[in-house]
Structure formats: C-alpha cells, structure tokens
Amino acid sequence: MAFVPSFPASFSLSLLCLAAGSALAQSGPTQVITVTGASSSNRASVAGFGDVPLSRLPMSASVITTAQLQDAGIASLADITRLDAGITDAYNPPGYWSQLAVRGYTLDNRSNYRRDGLPINAETVTGQTNKQALEILKGTSGLQAGISAPGGLVNLVVKRPQRAVRQARLGWEADGSVAAAVDVGDRSDEGLRLGWRVNASAERLDPPMRNARGSRSLLAGAFEVQPAEGSLLEAEFELGRQSQRSTPGFSLLGNRLPDADSIDPRTNLNNQAWSLPVVMQGRTASLRYTQTLAERLEFVAHGLVQRLRTDDRIAFPFGCSAENNYDRYCSDGSFDYYDFRSEGERRNSDALSLAVQGQATTGALRHQFKLGVLGTRHTARFGRQAYNYVGSGRIDGTAVVPADPALTDENTQRDERSTEVFAQDAVDFGQGLRAWAGLRHSRLQRASVRTDGSRPTDYGQSFTTPWLAISQDVGDAGTAYASWGQGVETEVAPNRSRYTNAGRALPALKSRQIELGYKHSSRALDWRVAAFDIDRPEWRDLGACDVAGSCTRTADGSARHRGLEAEAEWRAGAFSLRGSVLALQARRKGSVTAAENGKRPTNVPARSAKLQAAWNVAALPGLAALAFISHESARAVLPDNSVSTPGWTRLDVALRYAQVLSGGQRALWRVGVDNLADERAWKEAPFQYGHAYLYPLAPRTWSATLTVSF
Greatest CA separation found in the chain? Predict the structure, then answer.
C-alpha cells in the first residue's frame, strides 16, 4: 500500500536564512535572485588568482552568497545540490555530515574543503551562520590543493567585520523546528580601524523525519585591526555543536528495487529505544596577517587550527545474512541490525600558509603571480568501537532489538603531515591573450596504527601537480579558454574488521583533466559553457568481503568522466532566471572485474538540470515569487548497473516580502514549500562500505522566516 502523507499544519524555518543584505534594503519591486558563478562581479578566492573576475578565469567556479542561500531556503551544505547541476548528493544521511559530488566525483571530506582558503576536515557538521559565501571550484585542483579528489573544492568564506551590522532572525520548520540567530558588528574608520563581528544561533531540530529530534548551536566572532599603514591583522573563531540521530538508508530488497511510493520517507530505521544521537562538536580559529610590501605587492601569513570531537552512534542496518547477501536487505524487507558506537573521536587539523602575491611588468608582459608554502598537520584519535550484530530489523521500522554496546572492534589512529610549495602566474600578452601556469610540489608523510598497537604503517610520498591554461578575450564580454591540469588524492581503507588493510592509508594516485570553455558576461545576460574530460584512478574492495579478513581495499582501474556543462542567468525588468545543465558520460575502465568495465559508476546521474526563477510583483512593491526546479536522471544502484533508480523532478516555491517598518527597521519575510508536489522518488543511491543504500526525497515541507535589520 502506498504511503499517504499528512499535510503539515505549521510553517517552518529554513535553517539557513542568514543576513539578507541588500534584499532587506529593497522595499520596491527591484528584488532579483542571483545564484551564479558567471557574473563579472563575482570573484572566488578559491581559484587562487586574486581579484580576477570569474568571467575571465580559465576554469569553472561558482560563488553562492548567504543571501542567495536564503532565497532557496537552504538548510545545510548538502542542500546546495538544488542550485547547481554540476553538484549532486554523494552520501547524505540526515543528521550526519554532508558529502557532495561534483562532476560525478565524490569530494573527500578530509581534503576537498577549505575555510578562507586553508584546508579543514569536513567530517563534521558545517555551520553556515557565520559564512558569507560558499565558493565551488569544479574539476581537478592540484594547483590549489596538494591532495584532493578531482571533482573540485568547496571553500567556506567567513563573515568579516562591516560597518553597522545589526540583524536578528527567527523561524520555524515543519514539523516543529525553531531557530533564532543574531548577526552584529561594526568597524571604525579612525585610528587602528578596529572591526568586530559576532554571529550566534540556536536551533531545536524537529524535522519531518521521525525519531530525529535534536539541537544545533553556533557562536562565532571575527575581529580586525590595522596596526600600521598597509598592514591588516584579522582573527576569527567558531564554536559549533550538533546533537541529532542520524538516518540510515533503505536498500534493495533482494534483487528488487522497492517502489519509492510504497516507502514512508518519514521512517527512520535508527529508531531503537537505545539509539543515541550523533554528537558533533567543533572549535576552529584562524589568524591572518597581510602586509603591503610595495605597490602591487603584498605578503600574507595565514594560520588555522581546528579541533573536532564526535560521538558516532547508530542502530545500523547492513546486509542480509539470512539470504547470504551483504550488499542489500532481504527480499522480505528485513535486514541485519548492528549496534555501532564510536565515541570520543578526535580529529585535529593545523595549517599555516606563507605567500607573496602581486603584479609586475616585464617588458610588454604583465604578470599576476603568487608564490608560497603551505604546511598542514592532521591527526585522528579514536578509542575501541562497537559493531555488534543485535538482530533483524524491518523496513517499516517496527522491529525491536536489544542493545549490545560492548567495545569489540579495534579502531585506527592516523597521522598526516604535508608541506606544499606552489607558484603560479597569469601572463597578459595584450589584446586579450593570457597564459596561465601553476605548479605545486607536495611532500606527504602518513602513519597509522590500530588501537591495540597492531598493523602499524608509516610512509612518505612526494608528487608535483602542474596546471596550464590559455585564454582569449572575445570582445568586451566574452572569454574563450583551454586548460589542462592534474590532481592527487589519497585513500584510507574503511576501518572494518573484514578488511585486511583496515584503517590503513593507501598510496596516492593522480587524476588528469582537460577543459575547454567559453564565458560571456553582460548587464542582462551571463552564460558559460564548458566541456571537460577527467580520468581518475579508482579504489575498489576486492575479495569476498563477507567475513573478517576477506576484503582488501586497493587501486582498480579508473573512472573517466566526460561532460558538457552550461549555465546561464538572464535579468529583464521584474523577472530573472538562472539555470544550469550537465550532460555527463561517466564510465569505469581497467577494472579487474571485467563485467564492470564500460559501466556507469554508482550514484552518478548522467543528466541533471537546475532552474531558479524570480518575479517581482509590481502590484505589491517588495513582494517576490520564487521557484526552484531540480531534475536528475537515473542512478546506478549496483556496480554492474543491473539496477538503477528512476530519474526525478522536484519543485520548490517561496514568497519573499521586503519592507521598511515604521521605526526605520527593515524586515524580510519568507514563506516557502519544498517539494510542493510531494514527489516520491529515490533521491540518491550511494554504494557505501560495499552496500547499496537508497535515500528518498524529503516529503513536502513548509518553512517561514523573519529577518530584521535594525
């Protein structure tokens, strides 16, 4: 019998409605929605070329500001998949940290995330309250990062001091989430030019998912001072915490893909009486000093520390021993339940960057260059963990099984140090012709050991990742370019007893990319198109993988992703439209499992399209109607492509009203409905830890927020 959803009775808060900025100041019919990476006004520091507009850079990148996230009602990092066709879900259980895929490649949470340009560990909840923007670089990033998956980089841009910032926000989200946040700050133009900014938020989480209540909080501050002419000292910190039960996925029932219409998307299979929340706590701080050395030349020293602590607990569905299938659930809807607990996990990261950047002229050539060194250190410290079979569950969530918290399994301690030296230069030959070149040399040292002292590993690696590009301006509005680059990534075998190399670091492997593109930017229309070809070595689980010591994580062939990506934004009067599409051919090759060669990688849609639209209602100045359409095609569930999920389309709508109150305060109201048609579909199908999982689209969800600037 198909599940019949109940219509939510209350409005809700979009959990990521931050500073409304210019939208709050508009009481007339001139509001627009601009979620774009094509606009010439946008610049992305993650690209590494200073203030060069994205419309002139020979690479693909996007900038999404917090005001733009507010328009979309974005609640977490995972939800940015609604805004860009090139970004899709990789493995996003509600209540856990977000994992994204860009151009079909899953980003590594240990190496593909940056905070104001410095590497961080994203194996935690990523607070958005104190973020000014999200920057996404697409493709290989060996120039910007010594180690990273080839999909790209995500850079979190922290809010910095501004003059007279005073904002407060309240909101609700079905079925009963509530949140409050403040954003206050100021900056002086006299003396030391002191500046400060404080962000704080508190949320009670009560989503449509059952048995998933929790809480989230954040406190952050940013400060700056100019101790002398030409110098700037900036400091910032962030304290964050989230406590919430995570939500495991559904799966194949034997050889059958269950109908998404027959599944209650509100069911949380982590619903045992002994189920505990995943608690993620983070402390991050950074210090940046910028000194002008000469005209068009500056020195930047930037350091960061990050301290993460996690209690990871779940009633975890995995496999079907009754039918000897360990990559799916049983054909009758049952599955094996495990009591998993790994408490007191500590992940520490430190980074220090020293760089000189500027502009110079040699003869008729103009250079924009950057030279520097980056040192990083990452450590992971865990205790013993529980991973114990406790009985059989059912996909309707009615089974009751006993707890078994005994710490029966070892864990793995890891250490990693790296030193990276980099140089890059953009050479302007005149008449719009530019050459771009960069080189990064990395020295990596890694070690791991089990919590009982067994299986120690310790090794070092060195590698160099070059990047080259050429671009030609076409008139005043266009740029054509071609680029070639490499990237390096590393892998750690899952810390499970069935792996012969559990928890060990694997040798680094290189990926390669070629990209051709064209960008156009004008007052009314921005658009870009890019064709890319990326070849990335793949890791694979080899062996029976059904009992202890039967599985080995190792390199196995490659995944080649070739695609065509396009974005456009059009603005005319009261209307604005922004859309993106991706056509992707992703194939496995060179695998020892011949049947997989030529197959699509799991959980990678071949086509995706995202559209955002805004209409400013002339009859009521300040009112705007917003719409967001997301479409993704089928995803392979199993590596042999024998089962695939159907494609899906989702519509989200919202009304936004900006007004000036009688006391001079400015208010921004937003009411929205996500998944307006209450579409039932499998949103993603990650093949994780050797197991096929299925995650449904969230049901229709109402939201409402009020942001006041005073």
Answer: 78
**379: amino acid identity, one letter:** T
What is the rounded distance in angstroms from the CA atom of residue 346 to the CA atom of residue 379? 8
91: its two tokens: 């493995």
- 641 torsion bin: left (phi>0), alpha (psi -120 to 50), beta (else): left
Structure tokens at 526: 């921005």
Instruction: Provide the phi-psi class of 662: left if phi over 0, else alpha when psi is between -120 and 50, else beta.
Output: alpha
What is the model's pTM? 0.91
> Which of the pair, 20 or 337, is modelled with greater confidence?
337
Report CA-CA distances (Å) from 649 to 84, 130, 607, 681.
Answer: 14, 32, 12, 9
Those residues whose C-beta lies under 8 Å from the C-beta of residue 122, and which sit 6 or more positions away, are: 97, 98, 109, 110, 112, 113, 154
The CATH number given to 22-356+377-415+523-528+571-580+611-709 is: 2.40.170
* Average pLDDT rounded to a whole number, residues 463-491: 94
* CB 257, CB 279: distance < 8 Å: no
Q: What's the confidence (pLDDT) of residue 14?
A: 33
Which stretches does DSSP call E strand in 403-477? 412-430, 433-450, 457-474
Decide: helix, strand or coil at residue 448.
Answer: strand
Q: In what order do the strands lie in the sheet with 87-89?
A: 87-89, 100-102, 105-106
Question: Please, which residues have CB within 8 angstroms of residue 254's CB and are 6 or more apart in sequence?
Answer: 320, 323, 325, 328, 329, 330, 331
What dihedral angle (degrees, nearest 10) is formed by the CA atoms of 634, 639, 642, 645? -20
User: In the predicted model, is pLDDT for residue 23 greater than 90?
Assistant: no
Confidence of residue 299 (pLDDT cuts 50, 70, 90): very high
Q: How far is CA 568 from CA 59, 64, 80, 173, 612, in A?
A: 16, 15, 17, 31, 11
Residue 64: how many CB atoms within 10 A of its CB? Answer: 24
C-beta separation of 527 from 567 below 8 A: yes
* Tens digit of each residue's pLDDT (9 = 90 or more) over 546-576: 899 999 999 999 999 999 999 999 999 999 9
Per DSSP, the three-state class of 39 is coil
Segment 10-32 mean pLDDT: 35
Please state, in angstroms and as integers, the Cα–Cα distance from residue 653 to each residue in 24, 163, 277, following that order.
Answer: 20, 33, 32
Q: Which of 8, 133, 165, 153 is nearest to 672 (CA)?
A: 8
Cα 325-329-335 angle, rounded to 5 deg: 105
Provide the Cα torsion 133, 139, 145, 148; round to 10°. 100
Q: Measure the CA dihedral 50/51/57/63, to 10°.
A: 100
Query: What are 536's strand-pairing partners?
Result: 559
Pairing of strands 113-115, 152-158: parallel
Q: What is the pLDDT of residue 538?
A: 84
User: Do the beta carbons of residue 100 and residue 78 sit within 8 Å?
Assistant: yes
Sign of the CA dihedral with 69 first, then 74, 77, and 82 last: negative
Closest by CA position to 576, among listed 29, 34, 85: 34
Distance CA 298, CA 292 (A): 4
- In this structure, what token pair is assigned to residue 332? 């009758």
Which pLDDT tens digit goes with each residue over 231-268? Answer: 999 999 999 999 999 999 999 999 999 999 999 999 99
Mean predicted confidence (pLDDT) in 369-386: 97
Q: Which helix (H) or strand (E) holds 22?
A: helix 22-25
- Distances 77 to 81, 97, 504 between C-alpha atoms, Å: 8, 9, 29
Task: Report the SS3 class of residue 388.
Answer: strand
